[in-house]
Design brief:
With 572 residues, the chain is of the alpha+beta class. The protein contains 15 helices and 15 strands. Helix 2 packs antiparallel against helix 3, helix 4 runs antiparallel to helix 5 and helix 14 runs antiparallel to helix 15. The relative contact order is 0.07.
Length: 572
C-alpha cells in the first residue's frame, strides 16, 4: 500500500506540474489559426507569399517537398516578453523557423538533421528563441523539408522564462528516470547472469532498451553522438520502443511458472510481442506517409499485447502463481501508462514531454519495483534452498554417524578408509587399520544391563575421539567393534600406537558404571595397506589379527600370522 501511495503521489505531482506549465503556451498545430503551403525544395528556400497558404483541409504530397506552416500571433494582451518556440524532434531533413515582427523585421533560423547545434533541449525538443524587441511579435512561419508526417508534429510557443523553468524540471525528472533505468538494467543483467533466470535477463534487456530509447528521445545522446539528431534518432526511438515491448512481453510471460499457461497461449503471446517488434522495425524505416497507418497498426498491436499479457498474469494469479502475484503490481504502472497513451492525447502535459516522459518515469519506477520484488523473491528462494541443503547435509551426516557414540558408522567410515588406501597405493602416506573389540562385553550387558553397556561404549568412543585428527579417523562398525584408520605410520610405529590406544582404554575410569574394581579392556588387530588392495581385504586381515589377540588371552594387540596374512591377501 505504501509503494502504491508513493507512486500515485509522484504521478499526481507530475501531472499538476505538467499541467501548470502547459496553461500558458500556445499550441501550434493544423487548426483554423494555422495555414499551410507546400513548395518544391530549393537550396535557399524563401517563405512563400501569403497567397500560397491555405487555411482549410490538410496538406498532402509534402513528404518530398517543403511543408510550410504559418500562424498569426497578433493578439490583444499577448505577453510582450521574449518567446520560445519548442518543436519536438521528428523525421525531417531541414527545419526553418521565421519570427515576424510588427515593424517588418523577420528573424530566421534553421537546423538540419544531424546538426541541431545548440538548439536541442532535454525532452526531445528543439528551441527557437524570438528575442524581445520594441516591436510586437506578430507572425510565425515554420518550414519542414521532407517531413514524414504532419500528424507527428508537436510545437508550442511560450514565454522564454516559462520554457526555461519547464526545461529544468523536465531535465531533472528525465535524468532521474534514466539513472534508475541504467542502474536497473545493470543490476538485472548481472542478476540474470548470476542466477540463470530467463525472465530477469528479458527484464534487463527491456530496461536497457528503455534506457537507450530515453537517451535518444530526450536528446541526451546528442552530447555523445550529435550526428543522430532528428530523423535517425526518431527512427531508432521507434525501433527501440517496440523492441522494449517485445522484451517486456517475454519477461512477463517467462516469469510465470511452467504449467501456469497452456503452451499455445504462451507461444501466442510471445509471438504477439515479436510482431510488435517486427512492425516497429518496419515503421522505423518509413520516411513517407506510410508512417501514419503503420502507427495505427502498432497502436492496435500494442493494445492487444497489453491485454494478452494482463490476461496471462491474471490467469496465472488465479492458479496460484507466486511470480504473478509478486510482479503484477510491478508491471501495472508502465502497462497502464502505455495503454493510456493509446487513448488520450498527453502531448502537452508533463512539461511538454507528454506520453514519452510519462512512459519513461513509469518505466523507471517499474524497474526499481520489479528489481526489489525479484531480489526479495530470490532471497526467499535462496533461504529455502539453503535450509533444504542444510537439512540434507544434516541427514547425510546422521546417516554416516553412529547414533549411540557419534563416531562414523560403517557407511561413513568405509569411503574415507578406501580413499586413504588408494592414496597410499599411489605413493601417499602409509595406511594402517586398527580393529578394536571390547573384551567380555556380553558379560557387561548380562550383569549390568544394556543401558550400562551402551554407556561403556560411549566412554570408549570418547577415548577414541581423543586420537582423532588429520592422521586418525575413528568409527564404530557395530556392536562392540570399533575401528581406527591411521595414516603416515609404518607397521612398527603403528603397533606402538595401537598399544597406547589399548592401554588408554583400559586405564579409563569406569567405576561410576561398573562399580569399584570394574574395568574394561579391548583387543586390537593390526594391519597396514600392504596387506590388501581393498578395504574389505584389509578388514579381513585385521579381523584375523584380532582373532589372534583374543586367542592369546585378550587385552593385547596382534598382527595376523604370516600364513593367514598370505591367504587373506590372496582372498582380497
Amino acid at each position: 500500500m505504501i509503494g502504491r501511495g508513493i507512486l500515485f503521489a509522484i504521478l499526481l505531482a507530475l501531472g499538476l506540474a505538467g499541467s501548470a506549465s502547459a496553461t500558458t503556451p500556445r499550441i501550434i498545430g493544423l487548426d483554423r489559426s494555422v495555414c499551410h503551403a507546400v513548395t518544391p525544395v530549393s537550396a535557399h528556400d524563401s517563405i512563400p507569399d501569403a497567397a500560397a497558404f491555405g487555411c482549410t483541409g490538410e496538406p498532402t504530397g509534402y513528404q518530398h517537398q517543403m511543408l510550410w506552416l504559418q500562424a498569426d500571433l497578433a493578439a490583444p494582451g499577448a505577453d510582450p516578453g521574449a518567446q520560445t518556440l519548442l518543436i519536438h524532434q521528428s523525421r525531417f531533413d531541414r527545419l526553418i523557423v521565421a519570427f515576424a515582427y510588427a515593424d517588418g523585421v523577420v528573424r530566421r533560423s534553421e537546423v538540419r538533421r544531424g546538426a541541431f547545434g545548440s538548439r536541442w533541449r532535454i525532452g526531445g525538443q528543439i528551441a527557437f528563441e524570438a528575442p524581445d524587441r520594441s516591436a510586437a511579435l506578430v507572425g510565425l512561419t515554420i518550414g519542414f523539408e521532407r517531413l514524414a508526417s504532419h500528424d507527428l508534429l508537436r510545437a508550442r510557443l511560450m514565454p522564454s522564462r516559462i520554457a526555461d523553468v519547464a526545461g529544468s524540471l523536465a531535465a531533472a525528472f528525465i535524468g532521474g528516470a534514466l539513472t534508475l533505468l541504467f542502474v536497473g538494467a545493470l543490476y538485472n543483467l548481472a542478476l540474470a547472469h548470476a542466477v540463470r533466470r530467463r525472465f530477469i535477463a528479458w527484464h534487463g534487456a527491456w530496461a536497457a532498451c528503455m534506457l537507450l530509447w530515453g537517451m535518444l528521445w530526450s536528446q541526451l545522446a546528442l552530447v555523445i553522438v550529435p550526428e543522430v539528431a532528428g530523423t535517425l534518432a526518431s527512427q531508432m526511438c521507434t525501433a527501440l520502443a517496440t523492441l522494449a515491448v517485445a522484451c517486456a512481453t517475454a519477461s512477463a510471460i517467462t516469469s510465470l511458472e511452467p504449467g501456469m499457461l497452456p503452451p499455445r497461449i504462451r507461444h501466442g503471446v510471445l509471438a504477439l510481442g515479436g510482431a510488435v517488434a517486427l512492425v516497429g522495425l518496419y515503421a522505423a524505416m518509413a520516411l513517407d506517409g506510410s508512417v501514419d497507418w503503420l502507427g495505427a497498426v502498432l497502436g492496435v498491436l500494442i493494445l492487444a499485447d497489453l491485454a494478452a499479457v494482463a490476461a496471462c498474469i491474471a490467469l496465472a494469479w488465479r492458479r496460484g502463481s507466486v511470480e504473478a502475484r509478486d510482479f503484477a503490481l510491478a508491471w501495472a504502472p508502465p502497462m497502464a501508462t502505455l495503454a493510456l497513451t493509446q487513448f488520450f492525447d498527453m502531448s502537452n502535459l508533463l512539461f511538454g514531454g507528454g506520453s514519452q516522459i510519462a512512459i519513461l518515469i513509469a518505466s523507471a519506477l517499474q524497474t526499481v519495483w520489479l528489481s526489489i520484488a525479484v531480489t526479495r523473491r530470490l532471497a526467499k528462494l535462496r533461504a529455502e534452498r539453503d535450509a533444504a541443503r542444510a537439512a540434507q547435509i544434516e541427514l547425510d551426516t546422521l546417516a554416516r554417524r553412529d547414533s549411540l557414540t557419534g563416531l562414523l558408522n560403517r557407511r561413513g567410515f568405509i569411503p574415507i578408509a578406501s580413499a586413504a588406501l588408494r592414496e597410499a597405493e599411489q605413493g601417499g602416506p602409509a595406511l594402517g587399520l586398527l580393529l578394536i573389540d571390547v573384551d567380555h562385553f556380553k558379560a557387561v550387558n548380562d550383569r549390568f544391563g544394556h543401558d550400562v553397556g551402551d554407556a561403556v561404549l560411549q566412554r570408549i568412543a570418547d577415548r577414541l575421539r581423543q586420537w582423532e585428527g588429520e592422521i586418525c579417523t575413528a568409527g564404530r562398525l557395530g556392536g562392540e567393534e570399533f575401528i581406527l584408520c591411521v595414516r603416515g605410520l609404518a607397521i612398527r610405529p603403528l603397533a606402538e600406537f595401537a598399544d597406547r590406544v589399548r592401554s588408554g582404554i583400559a586405564e579409563a575410569d569406569y567405576s561410576d558404571l561398573l562399580g569399584d574394581g570394574g574395568g574394561v579392556t579391548v583387543s586390537i588387530g593390526i594391519t597396514d595397506a600392504g596387506a590388501a588392495a581393498t578395504f574389505q581385504g584389509l578388514y579381513r586381515v585385521a579381523d584375523q589379527a584380532l582373532y589372534e589377540a583374543k586367542r592369546a588371552g585378550r587385552n593385547r594387540i596382534a598382527l595376523p600370522p604370516a600364513d593367514r596374512l598370505s591367504s587373506a591377501i590372496e582372498a582380497a
